[in-house]
Amino acid sequence: MSEQSAAPVVVVTGANGLVGARTCAALLAHGARVRAVVRREGAAPQDVKGIEEVVGDFADSSFAAQVVRGADTVVTTVHPMGSDRSAQEEVGLTGTTTFLRAAVEAGVGRHVHVSTAGVYVRDPGTGDVDEAGALVGDGAGTYPEVKRDVDAAIAEIGGITRVLVRPPAILGAAESSVWNTLRPAALRDDPEQRHGIADKTFAWVHVDDLADLVALVAGGAIADSEDPSRGPVPGGCTPVNLAGEPATEERYLRTVADALGVEITWDDEPAWTGQLLTGRARGWGWTPRVTLDSAMAELASGVRGGPEDREG
Predict the structure, then answer these.
(1) GO MF annotations for this entry (predicted)?
(2) How far apart (Å, rounded) are the C-alpha atoms in residues 147 and 187?
């Protein structure tokens, strides 16, 4: 068997997005063959050699059946978080489960889904949160509720090993980045957005570290295990949390505000001050490489409009 034919085939949806693009690059670095699913021709990462671009709607069952044929793993990253509830349910929930069912029918072995730590209750006084943490109820907001429902729907679909990757705020330079681009733009343009709670936990992970974990799981470097502290449960649905160094909202907002030259109003309100626990991911062999200082330097440089200034 040739080295190329032995390499796992991984299908990545949303391959032109912040997470999807970095995941494609990380998979290639780990030796996988990547099918990058995008809606428009030429939208797959152009600076990453070796990607097979596949153009189509991942939520279309016929297209899904074609693109997953012969794959070892599928990775789903698509969720229109800024859209209304119906769009989030149509794309994030119906689309993801349609794609997953096609993968099961095709005999794909693993599914890695990029979820969010937003599905956990993180109210004042909650304390630290691990993968057994309580999930949000109705009334938490459209995004966390729909993502919670997507996770629940994935858990109900058997016949494949499923991993729910749950990152908090995802840092990383890109036009579509919420925390490096969109949130700073809101603070720049709207004084009403310049409020924060200084000691509130700012749980975060850099997109490169997120992509590394997804690539390790999707590429098969992390073996199945009946013990979820050591690897994904075979045939089961295993959530796994990711987070970088502990940080506060004050650290994030001051970095943005100083780069913009604006002031933050600090509100005296109760807030979550616990941590997102990552013992499971670390037990799988994952360790974040991007420090808080380097992530904040990259953030500040991007807000000021300068070149990226980040080292691992």
Answers:
(1) aldehyde dehydrogenase (NAD+) activity
(2) 26
